[in-house]
Amino acid sequence: MLSRKLLLGLLATSLLASSFAKATDTPSKRPNFLVIVVDDQSPLDLKIYNPDSPLDTPNIDRLATSGMVFDGAHHMGAWSGAVCTPSRHMIMTGRSVWHIPQRRPKNPKKQNKSVRYPDRELAPANLPEFSMAAIFNRAGYDTMRTCKKGNSYPDANKQFTVVRDATKRGGTEETGSAWHGKQVLDYLNQRESAADRDPFLIYFGFSHPHDTRDGTPELLAKYGAINHKDKNSLPPANSKQPPLPPNHLDAHPFHHGHPNLRDEVAVSGVWERRDERTIRNELGREFACSENIDIQIGKVLNRLEEMGELQNTYVVYTSDHGMAIGRHGLQGKQNLYEHTWRVPFVLSGPSIPTGMRALGNLYLMDLLPTLVDLAGIEAPSTLEGQSLRPVIEGKQETLRDVLFGVYCGGTKPGMRCVKQGDWKLIKYDVLDGSVRETQLFNLAANPLEYLPEHHRESEWETDLAENEAFAEKRKEMEALLLHQMQSWDDPYRLWDQPTD
């Protein structure tokens, strides 16, 4: 895939801008949108981000070749152990992590006093009226969604004109990812039969590769995995299984701060184990589910092509967040390492340069502003994210210089991170102060965030927080983190931060 510098020498910004105008200014040619969101997928699982990955996804590769891959996409964070919930709120509303609705007990007397909810004014009561489907409905679009049920934003989901939601994590046509694909194909067939010429926005969500990762028999065999269910034994070793991630550990060096978390200790087939046989089998299961998703995407893309709609359809591929699965001795999504904080993000369609990569430095909350911009719809004032148009047009490499991440679904105040350039800081303040840790990484030298426990030879491939040579950098990054927490209305402060 060509670099941005090479392509900028070939593509004129003015031509890109004019092609945007052509795609959005003619009412009869308003673009369609296919928004693909998978459940729990690290970008490092995909060849477009990790060439060493054995996962085969030819249709996602096809989207990448025909469009743009963004290397710096992130989900911002979560105030819930079910990281999907705030992530999907941000996707649906284009708002930041502390400016979206949180679940509150109906009886205020039963509220958890350790949880500092943001002011209600930061999440307007009428926000569903300015969520994805509502915005596109008002603009004359037909809107349809299929996705899992639960851990989402129901008031925004029901704004879609056609809703076919169900949680499908089995290994058959009716119980797995094929079911979601069939809902989209059925909807497209109905449109064709009715000669429906309205532009459409389809939210094509999947329930996999979230556990339980029951793959189809054929794909499980391809990746050497079984749907392991016996808690008292290890799954069989198989040479076809994906290799261990390079940053695998048998255990994280300190507690992540969320006791008895299901994603860490109660996932069927894994439970508390992080040994090689368990993790490689689980990766095989995940890859089987991910390739099945890719197959369903291919069916929908082919159908759009048959209908003559694909050329006028923007296609987005992303995930609600990443996943650990053995990396750093973790299993779930409740961490701020790159494998989990980052998400895959691919965009193709009319006027999108082909075969290009950009850093982007985007959040998932930038998805909706981008869709609105590409559709030529006036953006409502509720949107806090930014459109990717300047990056797409080659006017800039990133949307922002600094990225902020949060996880406080467990004990409070939780984890925070900040990234600027090559540098990233993560801080942990959990378990009533019994775990207070700081990590500092140079991602250019240490992209996999190796820890001392990985025993790497390079002095740069480790946590640099306690290295006196980087004391000034740590101080600088900690000041930057505090500024980000203040800017994004984070209601918490860490142990070594001033209260304000």
UniProtKB/TrEMBL annotation:
Key words, A-Z: Hydrolase, Signal
InterPro entries: Alkaline_phosphatase_core_sf, GAG-degrading_sulfatase, Sulfatase_CS, Sulfatase_N
Signal peptide positions on this chain: 1-23
Top-level lineage group: Bacteria
Domain Sulfatase N-terminal, first and last residues per copy: 31-377
Ranges for region Disordered: 229-259
The keyword Signal is annotated on this UniProt entry: yes
SUPFAM superfamilies from the UniProt entry: Alkaline phosphatase-like (SSF53649)
The keyword Hydrolase appears for this protein: yes
Family recorded in the similarity comment: Belongs to the sulfatase family.
Official protein name in the record: Sulfatase-like hydrolase/transferase
